[in-house]
């Protein structure tokens, strides 16, 4: 009787069978409700991400106008054409250099700003370029890198420093008056007289090639040299309005002050001087019988600075603009990670006898490794898509040397190439290059969740 009752009731320890209900998600929401709410996002994801990727892969298998199937021909062109190979090389340089430099600077700024009282203001200044668009930053640095020192800030600084340590030429466009002067070119930009100078006979060194109203400073009128010694005059043998005798010091003609004059005997300089404000000069008696030489330093073209946007330096120069923009981003993220570092570990290292460099290298950097990886990977993905800065900063003659994959994709497809097949192939190659970096980032995020 007891067994029968137990069987009929399922036993004293039996659990009641739950009623059959519709399937629910982990959060307790019915599956169809979750799908319904996710549907708009899935539609947008498919329309804006999945479809463009699929269409780009399909379009890359056809020719320029899409009428002929070429298979992998566009991909062959990508890795055989000189311009696309240059783009691939420059993109690799960007990925290898720019993220590392930005991350290193961000780390340095983040650590140093903790030691100064005005660290917050410094962080604000460094982060401020992030508020500027790539287009605006490109325009700014295009002006910074202008070749003319009067317009480009970079060359204005470079030329200022150069002129401190090097003598500036006095009259860069001046040259002897070939009609009346016996000064002849003697190599290195210098001019040497064919005759010799004698005491009591003033030497006449007329120059032309400069407009009187373009002379530096406030030049005086030239005066003929006098005296029994070895003398002479250097002047501009031309005056506004014309007139006067060629090869003679006429009234109204301007003196050339500061011109260096050398006395040369047997190829050796025996004496030298510079012309006075009135253009006259005098030499010691050792110069008697010597030839006069005006060295090339008098006529050398002024130093115009560095060709920042030339074929050699255009890529590093654009990277400088990128570092200026993104160093603040790296600094803020690393500073946030640094704020979470246990200070007791740092103090313990100092107590154990470690100096500040050892604490930074052996303790701070390892503790910040996860944050540094996040910053580095983010910047690597970012520089693979760099376009605006290169397009705006690089001038047309140097753009071929500075091109990257994203810029080459635009130029091939829409910038005059009109080859959408090759452009689609470049887009697919760029996607394939980004995928490994994204995979590393996803693996890192999963490891962080497991912790």
Automatic annotation (TrEMBL):
Subcellular location: Cell membrane
One GO BP: carbohydrate metabolic process
PROSITE patterns: ABC_TM1
Mode of membrane association: Multi-pass membrane protein
Pfam families in the cross-refs: BPD_transp_1 (PF00528)
Keyword Transport tagged: yes
Annotated ABC transmembrane type-1 domain residues: 88-441
Main localization (coarse): membrane
Keyword Transmembrane: yes
Region (Disordered): 1-23
Residues passing through the membrane, by range: 31-53, 92-112, 124-145, 321-341, 362-381, 421-442
Keywords for the protein's UniProt record, in alphabetical order: Cell membrane, Membrane, Transmembrane, Transmembrane helix, Transport
GO cellular component: plasma membrane
Similarity-based family: Belongs to the binding-protein-dependent transport system permease family.
Protein name: Sugar ABC transporter permease
Native species: Streptomyces phyllanthi
Lineage: Bacteria, Bacillati, Actinomycetota, Actinomycetes, Kitasatosporales
